Structures are given as structure tokens and as C-alpha cells.
């Protein structure tokens, strides 16, 4: 797996701050920070400089969001608190890095600084700082890959003669036809390999397209910055949406796709999508995932984070990637990111993973962080059976039950770059069904915007219960919820009618 280089940041940052007190040692001392395995190895015998994520101990106060009147105000309050806290608490570290001849690039959605080209001596000094909580090697990590390898594109893409069966199976078509709800007024964020935005099923639903001209300013962000040694088919820091792999285009298709000519592949064709590319030809890093999530909370023009606009935040973020423990992710690195998203009133939907069929196979972040995400398992919509590859609970990180719900994820036909279509399988294909379902709920009942707990309850409580012969983690497969299907298979029609009835 090739390495990529992370370049841009979200708050500025060559670090020279004047008048800031530095609470650390100037010399290499006894490590007090939690160190990932990769950092420990680099400190002992590393020769090449490493990119390191430095997580600080102090977390921002997110309580201002609790007093916000609506979702827009909620996002703005959280964003303001995060930015101000990062600026204040990171200043001593950034000044110190400048004195060491190093530079830091700041994040605020989690209190962290990315340090490029850190040598073993600098790592040891960082590990001894009293304001540092954890050091993590910022190395390439994979997305939640397909169980059968690369996607298979149809050699002669067919035009569907009807709505795709997986969409009908969820009850979404009943929402369209009986309730006249298709997702209008909702924005879904795609954090993935990018998007082929001109695909006929996607272009009409892109927030950056008004039907005549395109404006990508607040609707697209590229977190992949020049640095790969082999080049990239899309390039780097691209100004318009591009997909260098195909996976992101496919998942966006399942959320909103409809070309108006027979290819009805999406759950919420009335919703709008925005996108952030977080992988370089299928390879990403923790910093790129964090960067995209931060951008979704307050999109900004390329290279101008000072112009971030929380009013343009996504309502839902779909995530089909996984960071493994072997690559440094233990869960605590992402908890603050996910808490910030939740406090802002944004629903974070995550694929549960493709490591089934054994128990305890929900093993990769962020799907394992049960309280902060809505995790999704995969079923075959042709027979309602759980997909063999779908990861089962309990979560490795917190030992809680998972997934939350299940959705179609086996041989799902959706959009693919080149204006074509492909059939792909994975919990990566299941999670966008849930993102689309939430878009339908929000469109039907706009007062639910920002109310993550209520939206989660609606999705889980209205799912069609499914039992299993498999018992995991002391939870019987005959229980509802269980560690195979979660609360069951999503039912968008019941979710929307329940939401309307509760108002």
C-alpha cells in the first residue's frame, strides 16, 4: 500500500506565536503521552522522518450547542467553540514546533496538530510534553473494502426498466409515491474516494450545480494534496469533484441517484449532495478523514479556511471507510471528532465493516464507536438474509451491541465513473441506504434537523426486526436488537410516517 502526503490544513499554520507560555520540557524526557505502535518504533529505530498526529489533552466545551435554537445555530456554536479552543490551546505547541525548526498544521474538530517530517528526537520531545495526550503515526489507511475485491462494472450498462429493487425493498418508493417526500431541503455529505459529479444520475442533485452553471466553492473539497510518488488520475487539490477509484460515485448514487430516464438508483433523489475526497486511489490517512469531517461541518473555499461557513454544513455524512488498530487507530483518536459532529447536530452514518461472519468482527474505527455513530450492516434484499461478509457485534472498541441497523448491501447496482453503472457489495453499499433514509425523514419533518438522538431512534425503532441463529457477546440471536442485524432492516416508510405522527 503506497503512502500519500497530506498537505493542506484547516486552520492556518506556520507556527510562530509570541508571548505564549510553554508547559513542556525542552529536552527529551520521560514519555507521558500515549504512543501508537508505529510511533514507538519510529522513536527507537526510525530513520526516515514521519508524519505524526499530535492529540492534545484539552477538549473543547461543546455545551453551547445545547442552547442553540436550531441546526444552523447549533453548528455555528460548535464550530466557534472548536476554533477558539484550538487557537488558544495549540499556540504553545505551535510556537515550540517553530523553535524546533518544525511546522504544525492545526485541526479543530479534534484538538490535534499534524507534524510533518518528525525525526526520532522530535518524537521523543513531543512524547514528553505535558500538554500532549497521544501521538499517532499518520500513515495510509484503507477504506472499508469490498469483500470480493474490486467492483465489477457491467460491460454494457443497462437502463433500468424500474426503480432498483434494493430501493423498493427499503420502503423508499412508498415514501415518494404515497407521502410525496423525496428528500428536498436536505444535504448529504460523501466522505469517500471522490465523486464523478457529471454522471447523469448525480449531476442534477449536486448542490454545486444550479441547472446551468457549476460553483464548487462550498460543495466540494479535496483533502488529497500533492505528494504521491506515482501520480493520481484526478490530480491533487482538484477544484471540481473527481473520483479516482469509483467507490464514492457508487455510494452517492445509492443516496440520491436518478437520471430522470429510468435509472432510479437512489433513496432520496430530492436531496442534494456535497463531497470530500479523502483517499488517494483508495488509500487515505487519519488526517485526510479528519480534514473531510471538519470541512463538512463548515465548508470553505479551497485554501481559505478563514472563510468557513457553518450554514453550509451537511445534515448527514456517509462514511464507508475503516481505520484499523494495526495502523494506529484505537478509537480514542476519533471520539472527539465524532462527538463534535454529533454536538453540531450532524448524523454520522458508518459502515460496520466487512470482516464477518464471526462474532466480534466490528473491529475498525469509526464503526466501532457505538454511541457516536449510526453503524450499518449489510443484507441481501432478495431474501432478507444477512450478508456473509457483514461484520457482527459486539464492537471491539466499546463492547456494545452492533450494528445499529442493516440495509441492502449485496450486489447493489449504482453509478460508476464514465457515466456507467456497476454492481458492488459491502457494508459500504448498505450505509448510503441509511443516509438516504434519514434524508427522507428530515425532508418530511424539517423540525428534526439537528436532533441526532431522535433521528437515530426513528431509524432503529422502525426497522423490521430480524432474528438470527447466531448469538454473540452474550446476546441471543433471537433478541431484538441482536449483534447480527442490530434492530433489523430499515423501513423508510414506517420511519417517515412515525416521524410525522410524532409531531
UniProtKB/TrEMBL annotation:
The keyword Nucleus does not apply. It comes from the Bacteria. Keywords: Hydrolase, Protease, Serine protease. SUPFAM superfamilies: Subtilisin-like (SSF52743). The active site is at residues 192, 247, 428. Residues 183-472 form the Peptidase S8/S53 domain. Signal peptide: none annotated. Residues 390-409 are annotated as: Disordered. Belongs to the peptidase S8 family. This is S8 family serine peptidase.
